[in-house]
């Protein structure tokens, strides 16, 4: 019986990770997972992801189950955080996004844009939750 419970739990976890990845892959946006590691803070993980944006492409309104630090590796990205004025970042600049804050990111340059996203998130929750209602304007 314990083997069946273990297998069922494993299937749910893998299925959740697959769904998380499917939600986070958008046309014109390529996400490359770089690191996922337990933290010394119980129930928290650190995750690093490289996100590449084709010219003119935006990642739709979404939120994360923890804080995000976005560092622009190349190009020009515009971030729209719910209820705040847009923030434009170029290569070498970074932005702190609070846990649960609905936001978008858009490549407003003429070439590729990329960010290094570092997340401090709740363990076991999907990294990206797409939003429908109350999304910030694009």
UniProtKB/TrEMBL annotation:
Do you know which InterPro entries this protein is assigned to? Cupin_2 (IPR013096), RmlC-like_jellyroll (IPR014710), RmlC_Cupin_sf (IPR011051)
The record, for Pfam families, names: Cupin_2
Specify the Cupin type-2 domain's residue ranges. 50-114
UniProt xrefs under Gene3D superfamilies: Jelly Rolls (2.60.120.10)
- Quote the protein name from its UniProt record: Cupin domain-containing protein
Organism whose genome encodes this protein: Flaviflagellibacter deserti
Organism placement in taxonomy: Bacteria, Pseudomonadati, Pseudomonadota, Alphaproteobacteria, Hyphomicrobiales
